[in-house]
Amino acid sequence: MTPPTTARRTVLRHLRPALRSVRRSESAAARSAGRTTARRTVLRHLRPGPRSAGALAAATAAMTALPLVAPLITGRFVDEAIGGASTRHLTLIALGYLAVAVSAQAARVVTAWLASRLAWDGTNRLRERLAEHALGLDMAYHGRHTPGEMIERVDGDVVALADFVVAFLLDVVAGILLLVGVLVVVFTVDPRLGGVLLAYCVLIGFGMARAQRLAVPSAARSRAEHAALIGTLEERLAGAEDIRANGAGRHAVNRFHQAAAAWYHADLRAGKIGSGLLACTTVAFATGTAIVLGLAAWTQASGTLTVGTAVLLYQYTLMVRAPFERLIDQLRQYQTALAGVARIGDLLAERRTLPAPAFPRPLPATGPLSLHLDGVGFAYADDDEQVLSGITLKLAPGETLGLVGRTGSGKTTIARMVLRLYDPTEGGVRVGGLDLRDADPASVRRRICAVTQDVQLFAASVRDNLTLFGPPADDRRLRDILTGVGLGGWLAGLPDGLDTELGGVSAGEAQLLAFARAFLTDPGLVVLDEASSRLDPATERRVERSVDRLLTGRTAVLIAHRLSSLSRVDTIAVVDHGRVVEYGRREDLAADPGSRFARMLDMAGVRR
Ligand SMILES: Nc1ncnc2c1ncn2[C@@H]1O[C@H](COP(=O)(O)OP(=O)(O)OP(=O)(O)O)[C@@H](O)[C@H]1O
């Protein structure tokens, strides 16, 4: 008879594809709802407070109304000059014109200042929110997106949005208000000419709406290609050392060239469409001005219009051009900003795949922690192959386990499960008797610690690199810890001690700093991904000593790249294709000539 757990696993294996498809459609629906909410969130960040909104509205109204008055003054000046008014009177009108022109410019400056303050306040809030959100997303998300893409989202898109908000308020809102104002004044002066101007504006508006549809995809494409270029560049720069060391420079430059070429072509196309549209508008405006002038001349000849009014109409017709041109100019920025809002919205709609526990319980606060992986199965994405299957490992508090296996067998993935960087798709991970999914995330970070091969050091002080910008620790303790890992001499040679900004450190020093970080948190469970890089014998001895000290009195999972390091662990698990194919006490496995572990030791020439 099949044991019940095996039977359950068989049923689950058959149901897995169906479950995944249900999960996929559910998450697609949730994502789309999330996106709408996220876009609203983006716009909410940009909403000004009532006082700023009031000040901006007043400044915009002044900036629009004042230029409307100027042609009225010019018209009056012309008529009064023809009518033989005194020089003093004409000078007064001219001074009035000057005052209006200066005030209009002042109103524009104030509006620009208020608009950019508003835009930057809003977008800074948005940038903070985005950075916080992006940093809070799981490894699953960061594995799919390059840091360059993130930078483009958090900075590039937000700057485009800020630029657009300023331009929107200055050019679009003010432009539309000015257009309405001009139409109202021209209608009042001569309804027939007003009608002609209105028809002309409607035609231009309609043409622009169609043109917008042409410009949208090309602008979006150009921006997407730009993001891809930044991503490529960032990735190559981050890996510059490996690229150079392995002679992959040509390939890197080729890839960069391809990305740059794709952006160039996309931007060229967007530029061509933009310039084409601008040329069409210039022709349309010239035709419009000619029509209005012809009509004004005809009405003036029939005696119903004064010369001053004809001049006034001419000026208003010219005034219509600027807002339309600015509107067209804004179309591209609008598209860019719209695409940016969509992408920012998408980022904000990304949810953590590791749900926070409903009732978080802290891990035991002191002492070594037990670890139990119970039938753990895992795939990196819904459609991906299983990377781990049925992993069951049990460590008593203080016990150490060595994970061995070929490259790609799943050792790092097991470590990620233990650190709760991902949740298993099957089975569970229990630490200190508590399922990690129910454990308080803060206590997980405090009590479970990883020392990995890729030590990330920051351009910050030694102190901040040790505390990872967390609450300050006692200086004496930091010094003792550094001395303990063998960095006492190194610290003594630093000009500002713990406050020295970290410059270049060697691979060995970086490893030792990572151990110092681990000693500072004093974890109950340690995951140690042994560095495979070659260290000089002295540094290697210091690292070995730190490993020994770190493993003493703590539960540990050691991913060993050198079999000789395994002499310090209690149990061994051999991993192959995501399964534990051998698991037992180290001495027993080493003593059994038929075991895989013994064969591995023999092949590596390590004494059993
Ligand atoms: N972030 C990821 N997204 C998708 N697949 C991944 C990811 N990380 C690892 N994999 C895949 O999972 C499998 C197991 O990888 P893992 O890194 O756990 O192996 P490993 O035994 O630690 O290898 P190594 O000894 O080389 O570090 C591999 O097939 C790998 O390609």
TrEMBL record:
<keyword id="KW-0812">Transmembrane</keyword>
<dbReference type="InterPro" id="IPR039421">
    <property type="entry name" value="Type_1_exporter"/>
</dbReference>
<feature type="transmembrane region" description="Helical">
    <location>
        <begin position="277"/>
        <end position="298"/>
    </location>
</feature>
<keyword id="KW-0547">Nucleotide-binding</keyword>
<dbReference type="GO" id="GO:0005524">
    <property type="term" value="F:ATP binding"/>
</dbReference>
<feature type="transmembrane region" description="Helical">
    <location>
        <begin position="304"/>
        <end position="324"/>
    </location>
</feature>
<keyword id="KW-0067">ATP-binding</keyword>
<feature type="domain" description="ABC transmembrane type-1">
    <location>
        <begin position="55"/>
        <end position="336"/>
    </location>
</feature>
<keyword id="KW-1133">Transmembrane helix</keyword>
<feature type="transmembrane region" description="Helical">
    <location>
        <begin position="193"/>
        <end position="211"/>
    </location>
</feature>
<feature type="domain" description="ABC transporter">
    <location>
        <begin position="371"/>
        <end position="602"/>
    </location>
</feature>
<dbReference type="InterPro" id="IPR017871">
    <property type="entry name" value="ABC_transporter-like_CS"/>
</dbReference>
<dbReference type="InterPro" id="IPR011527">
    <property type="entry name" value="ABC1_TM_dom"/>
</dbReference>
<dbReference type="InterPro" id="IPR027417">
    <property type="entry name" value="P-loop_NTPase"/>
</dbReference>
<dbReference type="Pfam" id="PF00005">
    <property type="entry name" value="ABC_tran"/>
</dbReference>
<keyword id="KW-0472">Membrane</keyword>
<dbReference type="Pfam" id="PF00664">
    <property type="entry name" value="ABC_membrane"/>
</dbReference>
<feature type="transmembrane region" description="Helical">
    <location>
        <begin position="53"/>
        <end position="73"/>
    </location>
</feature>
<feature type="transmembrane region" description="Helical">
    <location>
        <begin position="158"/>
        <end position="187"/>
    </location>
</feature>
<dbReference type="InterPro" id="IPR003439">
    <property type="entry name" value="ABC_transporter-like_ATP-bd"/>
</dbReference>
<dbReference type="InterPro" id="IPR036640">
    <property type="entry name" value="ABC1_TM_sf"/>
</dbReference>
<protein>
    <submittedName>
        <fullName>ABC transporter ATP-binding protein</fullName>
    </submittedName>
</protein>
<dbReference type="InterPro" id="IPR003593">
    <property type="entry name" value="AAA+_ATPase"/>
</dbReference>
<feature type="transmembrane region" description="Helical">
    <location>
        <begin position="93"/>
        <end position="115"/>
    </location>
</feature>
